[in-house]
């Protein structure tokens, strides 16, 4: 990628990116990561609470996506030493910087639905 006439190469976790958008999409891409981040905005949720809010995600996929988001530093996972285990997820401080992006994506999704489809329920 060229920035101010100079080539930019990003090296993150031993992976090379030739464009910052490529890096961002690698971290946030896929069907579920944005949805998980959306529900964690301003909220701390347990696994089962997330699962109830994202009704069409499988348990296996939710576990995988949560691990990837935690590894990327976008969410935090807090484990309480009790039986049965209690685990809570929330946005990390850095993950909270995604709020304007998530809001813009949400607005776009609603605008698109209203232009090319319909809102079925509120």
TrEMBL record:
InterPro entries: HTH_HxlR, WH-like_DNA-bd_sf, WH_DNA-bd_sf. Pfam families: HxlR (PF01638). Keywords: DNA-binding, Transcription, Transcription regulation. It comes from the Bacteria. The keyword DNA-binding applies. Residues 19-117 form the HTH hxlR-type domain. This is Helix-turn-helix transcriptional regulator. It comes from Hymenobacter negativus.
């Amino acid at each position: 990628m060229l920035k101010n006439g100079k080539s930019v190469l990003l090296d993150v976790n031993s992976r090379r990116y030739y464009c910052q958008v490529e890096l961002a999409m690698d971290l946030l891409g896929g069907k579920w990561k944005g949805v998980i981040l959306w529900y964690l905005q301003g909220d701390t949720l347990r696994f089962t609470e997330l699962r109830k809010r994202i009704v069409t995600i499988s348990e296996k996929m939710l576990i995988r996506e949560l691990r990837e988001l935690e590894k990327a530093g976008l969410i935090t996972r807090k484990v309480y030493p009790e039986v049965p285990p209690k685990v809570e997820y929330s946005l990390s401080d850095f993950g909270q910087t995604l709020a304007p992006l998530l809001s813009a994506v949400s607005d776009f999704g609603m605008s698109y639905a209203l232009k090319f489809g319909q809102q079925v329920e509120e």
